[in-house]
Amino acid sequence: MRGLAVEIISIWQKTNVPGGAPGPFLDALIEQTLSDHPRLSHPDRALLRELVTGVLRWRGRLDYAIGQVSHQPVNKLHPLVLNLLRLTTYQLLFLDRIPASAAVNESVKLAKIHRLPPALIGFVNAAARKLATALPDLPLPDPEIEPVTALAVATSHPEWLAARWLERLGPEAAWKRAQANNLHPPLSIRVNTALISPATLQVVLQTEGIATESGRFSPVGLTICSLKQSPFNLPSYQRGLWLFQDEAAQLATLLLQPQPGHGILEIGAGRGGKTTHLAQLLRGKGRILAVDHSLERMAALNRSRQRLGLTGVDLLLTDATLSLPIQPEHRFDRILIDAPCSGLGVLRRHPELRWRRQPGDLDRFARLQAALLRQAAPYMRPGGLLLYITCTTEPEENESVMAAFLRSHPDFALHPGPVSDAPEITPFIDADGYFRTLPERHDLDGFFAALLAKER
Predict the structure, then answer these.
(1) Which amino acids are annotated catalytic?
(2) How far is CA 2 from CA 103, 113, 206, 385, 453, in A?
(3) What is the average per-residue pLDDT within 372-394?
(4) pLDDT at residue 152 is higher than 60
(5) Which of 93, 121, 139 is where one domain is finished?
(6) Tell me, what CATH number does 25's domain have?
(7) Measured distance CA(134)–CA(154) in Å, rounded
(8) 292 among the known binding-site residues?
(9) Which residue has the higher pLDDT, 260 or 19?
(10) Which end of the chain is more exposed for a tag (fewer CB within 10 A), N or C?
(11) Is 27 annotated as contributing to ligand binding?
(12) What pTM was estimated for this model as a whole?
């Protein structure tokens, strides 16, 4: 497992250089590896996922520990040596069930398998043994003396983000947010209510050996309590009775209040989580035009739509920041913009994103978001609703984008009064009328949404 884990981590790092073109998501690399090794037992599969996501979740703290025992700066170490030591350190710090001797010996063994020079093998051996002796009592930076470094190291976030949150949120709130990002998110699923009710699905899953609880907020959500087999092999999944989706995403979609018969334009459809939810809500009456620029994501959306047995969805592969290939006179009752963003609200679910993002990304995404709004707005029917959604917590991509759009489009306004008949939505509407969920406050992914109405 450790060899596969190091391989996945190394591939992700090579293909996801900060400032460069985005490479594959970590989840995709893990799933591909598991697919390539079908005979792995469930415990081995779980350990592989734990090692890979754990190392990237805690990379900042691991590197700090390695730096305390290494005579070379961490950023000067051979990439494979560094990843072997990260793997060792993660096991020593967070996996009590793995003996320290096993963690050390496996790293040395892997160094030999990869035919590292003898000097580097000796370095891995010496550094790993020092770590086994020093951990877990290695002191961390003092928050009173080095507040930014202390937050960055203790919670494993890049220093620019730690500094940003300390300034914007204050110390107490910044620590709570960063700590929440390191918690494992619940396994939330959305019930395909076009085929089955949540209560009935719970019974079906129970017969498949899966215990669930009702969602805490979403009326169509369930939480899986434990999972000891591949969920994608379950008959209920293959029959299209459910899909994975955080409750925050489920709630955000409800804001749009789609009604049977509506025509809906969705920009940034991705793999179809919100597309298929909208299709459920239309109950087979109405049409959705789902737009995305990625052929791979469009293909995934189509597979998901087919598995769920949902109709009324048309796919359009195009760059929605440019002029849309839609008849100029066409108008939609609802528009959903699931905007590309920094993803800083979903770091607990995608821990690797913290190491890809840079400060300049916030303004870069804001420009993309403004372009999507600008291109979609002319297709809004008077009296219709436009929903803007991100999975980031940062105002440059949220409130600032909305303020700029509303200044340049006076025929749009933040939707007044109750935004939905669903009582589940109300607790998440702030004083400014925006929908907001936070991992540290709600144990949900960090989502932002603004519902705009176009004047008649």
Answers:
(1) 391
(2) 9, 12, 33, 50, 53
(3) 97
(4) yes
(5) 139
(6) 1.10.940.10
(7) 16
(8) yes
(9) 260
(10) C
(11) no
(12) 0.93
